[in-house]
Specification:
alpha/beta; DNA_Partitioning_ATPase; eight-stranded mixed sheet; binds magnesium ion; binds adenosine-5'-diphosphate; 249 residues; 42% helix; single chain; globular; Chromosome partitioning protein ParA
């Protein structure tokens, strides 16, 4: 089992859109996949869930008093399961802080080893104890960067923090997100590729209204517009990540 986190300290950069589409593509390729929605706003759950189920008590979850396997729900998509968000997750950071070390989230993932080959973590924006737990749990951290100087700077901070916590920066996988080719700055940043982004993935996610439509369709792009260039961009992102993460077992 491999764990992929869609993470950034910034919000509104396309983490959830990428997480949903990547999880869908992994499942379509036959990998039993779990989408774990760690964001109390629950956007990812909204896209994937057919009917709301049991609520999750984050406090019990962190204390290990919930059998995580029982919280997992099937989705309408073959091979794709969902660990839905719950409003109590807004305390996840405080709850994880009470547990020694940074491996609490990693330990929660252990039982899934038997059930899934890929876990996709859709993370809320943060640079806190929760982020440290996410870094420790994830084999790969994909970071969407909207081309702007501030975004590149924000990635720099993520990079520093990741390294400071003892992780290998080659497990960070930045990629450009919400790219509008009509904007001069977007084109300039893509062309110059700032130093920290030299290792970015080749795939570029365009700014496209079809991605916003996912909220109406309540489905990943591949399920309703598979031939759209934006869907193809997520396909490229998925193949970049597969190549970087190595074989799934
Ligand atoms: N490439 C894109 N093009 C256009 N709209 C997008 C794109 N990616 C995300 N969005 C929209 O922008 C908003 C924020 O995206 P989201 O994936 O939820 O970001 P995050 O999870 O980083 O907060 C959502 O309304 C989503 O539909
Ligand atoms: Mg999100």
């Amino acid at each position: 089992m491999q764990t992929l986190a869609l993470y950034h300290l910034k919000g509104g950069v396309g983490k959830t859109a990428a997480a949903v589409n990547l999880a869908y593509l992994a499942a379509r390729d036959g990998y039993p996949t779990l989408f774990w929605d760690l964001d109390p706003q629950g956007a990812g759950s909204w896209y994937l869930e057919s009917a709301p189920g049991q609520t999750i008590d984050a406090a019990k979850l962190v204390k290990g008093k919930l059998a995580v396997g029982r919280l997992v729900r099937p989705t309408r998509f073959e091979n794709l399961s969902l660990m839905p968000a719950d409003f109590s997750l807004r305390y996840l950071d405080i709850l994880l802080r009470k547990v020694q070390g940074q491996d609490a989230l990693k330990r929660l993932l252990a039982p899934f080893r038997e059930m899934f080959t890929l876990v996709v973590l859709d993370c809320p924006p943060s640079l806190s104890h929760l982020a440290a737990n996410i870094f420790a749990a994830a084999d790969a951290v994909a970071v969407p960067i909207v081309p702007s100087h501030l975004s590149v700077r924000a990635f720099e901070i993520v990079h520093q923090e990741y390294k400071a916590l003892g992780h290998k920066p080659r497990r960070l996988h930045p990629f450009f997100s919400m790219v509008d080719r009509r904007r001069r700055l977007h084109n300039a940043l893509l062309a110059e590729t700032p130093k920290r982004l030299k290792r970015r993935m080749d795939a570029v996610i365009p700014y496209a209204s079809v991605i916003e439509q996912m909220g109406e369709e309540r489905a990943p792009l591949g399920a309703f517009a598979p031939r759209h260039p934006a869907a193809q961009a997520y396909e490229s992102l998925w193949s970049d990540l597969r190549a970087r993460m190595g074989e799934f077992a």
